[in-house]
């Protein structure tokens, strides 16, 4: 290396050209390395994907379709596993509000991601423009509306199952926290509020689809005009109102009657204790008001509104 570095630049260039010429001469007498690759084989002889379809878009769709479905299954499974882990962590977290908040956020994003994965295919069918702009075609618009309606039914059913599971987890967690809280009134009050909100949200989800589909979104074919008309079904609204009122009376009525009994027992056994006497009077008053309101609403719905005197 010291000898080569001491040479003049021209000498270095000459030696480089000489070595290149010798290497070229040696390679020229060697067998052709590329001879085994020529001629190129036909595409039928190669082990490459050959998707079906006449157009490039159809071939691409047939090639990427199975891959997309498998990817959705894998990602959906991972999202479902994360939701289960988050729910389990929320249950065992106890009164650690920071952990519960973080897991609730993770569960929310997991549910949103799982929902988007589930409806990606149906939504793509609704907004498929390969057959042209469906907005200007009434028949195509009705078909897409039916697809969207079916998709929303699937989504609503999916959400109902998820919310039912989430509400069950919240019920279990709230009950566990209330049991472990002991005499901590702040924790007990907070969990009572969570129970009430979870129950109200679950009932709202249960009745919302029923009311929308039975009352506000009633589609019927009019033979005179030859068109599908959407109108408000008043009779169905009355029936649903009566059913909801009966459900409330069935569950809340006995609780109010039990409150009357408990308030009476507490009042009798107060023994002159002003605090217990005041609590008993409060329970009795609230129970009486609740009974009057509930059964008054039941009587109003059963007679005046529904027309059954």
Please give a structural write-up:
It is built from eight helices and two strands; from the N terminus they run H-H-H-H-H-H-E-E-H-H. With 309 residues, the protein is mostly helical. It has a domain at 246-309. A two-stranded antiparallel ribbon has the order 1-2. The longest helix is centred in the middle third of the chain and has 44 residues, at 138-181.
Show the helix and strand layout.
Layout: H1 2-5, H2 9-28, H3 56-92, H4 97-126, H5 138-181, H6 185-216, E1 218-222, E2 227-231, H7 234-268, H8 274-305
- Could you tell me the mean pLDDT? 69
Question: Could you give the count of β-strands?
Answer: 2
Radius of gyration: 37 Å
- Summarize the helix and strand pattern as letters: HHHHHHEEHH
First-last Cα distance: 116 Å
Share of helix among residues?
over 70%
- Structure classification: mainly alpha
Descriptors:
309 residues, mainly alpha, 2 strands, 76% helix, 3% strand
Short description:
The protein has about 300 residues and is mainly alpha-helical.
């Amino acid at each position: 290396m010291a000898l080569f570095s001491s040479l003049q630049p021209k000498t270095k260039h000459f030696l480089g050209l000489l070595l290149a010429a010798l290497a070229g001469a040696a390679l020229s007498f060697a067998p052709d390395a590329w001879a085994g690759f020529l001629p190129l084989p036909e595409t039928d002889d190669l082990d490459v994907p050959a998707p079906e379809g006449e157009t490039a878009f159809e071939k691409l769709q047939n090639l990427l379709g199975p891959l997309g479905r498998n990817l959705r299954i894998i990602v959906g499974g991972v999202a479902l596993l994360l939701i289960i882990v988050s729910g389990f962590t929320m249950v065992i977290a106890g009164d650690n509000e920071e952990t519960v908040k973080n897991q609730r956020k993770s569960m929310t994003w997991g549910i949103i991601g799982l929902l988007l994965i589930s409806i990606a295919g149906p939504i793509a069918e609704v907004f498929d423009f390969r057959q042209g702009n469906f907005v200007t075609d009434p028949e195509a618009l009705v078909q897409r509306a039916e697809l969207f309606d079916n998709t929303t039914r699937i989504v609503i059913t999916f959400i109902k199952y998820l919310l039912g599971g989430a509400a069950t987890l919240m019920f279990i967690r709230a009950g566990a926290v209330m049991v472990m809280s002991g005499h901590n009134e702040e924790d007990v009050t907070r969990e009572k509020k969570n129970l009430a909100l979870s129950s109200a949200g679950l009932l709202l989800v249960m009745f919302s689809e029923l009311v929308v589909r039975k009352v506000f979104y009633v589609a019927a074919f009019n033979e005179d005009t030859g068109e599908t008309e959407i109108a408000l079904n008043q009779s169905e609204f009355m029936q649903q109102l009566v059913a909801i009122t009966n459900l409330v009376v069935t569950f809340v009525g006995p609780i109010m009657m039990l409150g009357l009994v408990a308030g009476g027992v507490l009042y009798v056994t107060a023994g002159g204790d002003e605090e217990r006497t005041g609590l008993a009077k409060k329970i009795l008053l609230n129970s009486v008001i609740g009974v009057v309101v509930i059964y008054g609403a039941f009587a109003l719905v059963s007679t005046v509104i529904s027309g059954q005197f």
